[in-house]
Amino acid sequence: MNCNHLTHADLAGHAEFRMGRRKFVRLATLGAGTAMFMGAAPARASGGIEALLLSCMDYRLVDDLTRYMDGRGLTNQYDHIVLAGASAGASHPKLASWHETFWSHLQVAIDLHKVKKVVVVDHRDCGAYKIAVGPDHAKDPATELAAHAEILGPLKAEIVKRFPHLEVETHLMALDGSVEQVG
Length: 183
Description:
Elements: H1 8-12, H2 21-37, E1 51-55, H3 62-71, E2 78-82, H4 87-91, H5 99-113, E3 117-123, H6 127-133, H7 141-162, E4 167-173, E5 179-181
Parallel strand pairs: 1-2, 1-3, 3-4
Antiparallel strand pairs: 4-5
């Protein structure tokens, strides 16, 4: 039997999938109780979550991003979209094929999770920025900050234009995990 194309009728014929309503409810209750006992987070109310985080794919900063968001009290309170270059991936002309992905994800985050803000975290020594704006953008920290500000600023303005109800934050993370606000 091909498990990728099972129907309810297929499952009903197999003893291991037959179960009465009471047994199902008992098992479901046991599972919920076990999840609570194990410290699993309760299901979110339909009121939504706090934010959508846009960050780069750089493997060096995944743990730092999580620590940063947790440190802000946003544990399990944000959706996360990853595009190489973060703001550059969402808005720079050299990476244009990804732009609609960002806007579509943002709309889904608003529709499904009622996000209240967008948090964009670029990072220093970003390879996608080197592709988009050239390697000279990172010749010194001030030039690198200015290059990020040139892309973060217009992206923030476009988010606010399309979704005036959203708050937008723009940041730059160093490779040591420290974060500074940009703009």
